[in-house]
Amino acid sequence: MQEASQQTAAVGHYIYAIIPDQGRRSLGNIGLEETEVYTMGDGRVAAVVSDLNSARIRPQRRNMAAHQEVLKQLLRDLTPLPAAFGLVADDDAAISKILKDNRTAFLDQLARVNDGVEMGLRMTWDVPNIFEFFVGAHPELQELRDDYFRDGGNLTQDQMITLGRSFERLLEQDREKYTEQVEAVMRSCCRELKRNKCRTEKEIMNLACLVNRADLERFEQAVLQAARPFDNNYAFDFNGPWAPHNFVEMDIRL
Question: Domain spanning 117-247: which CATH class is it, in words?
């Protein structure tokens, strides 16, 4: 990082992250609207900010990309506490108040994620039709389905509800079983694991993993180990490293 240039007048300060205060620094003109990103600190913690020419920040792709780029640059040297997109403070005094009011919480969370990065790990059913796959994998579901279709007619509404509930119950049971199986392996190289909500019916798990930087290779090996018992009907993919969004709780009131 380079020494920051003189701050100019602005509508407000856009906040990207909180980091340990290491003196006033600049990351260059990589912020929203290609503005300079720099730090404002109190000696213990610092806000990573850029000046705004407008009080309204739209969640446009270029703005969100700039936000992520700042976090990416920060992550090269340290582990930041990432702020949610769209957080704006009115002026220098507002930044100072945020740092003062939240200093203890910020320091505790910085210690929690220190030298760590977030990795995402997803597991999915890689099959054309998830219901038919479950019919083949669970005899009780196949028996129920075949019983309902034995006469060749259409299902009644009650039958459709019963069949759907049986499928959902088995889906959740398998998700829980497989997630616990994978978590048991991943705990060997992860400081913390957090389950996120599955976004599609075929998704089995969506894990956020807090991993030491030095353990990223171990993380990849653990993913391979966790995937080994599963056949080609299951797919694993991981992504990262990211700033630890899922392991940070920043309730900043402006």
Answer: alpha beta
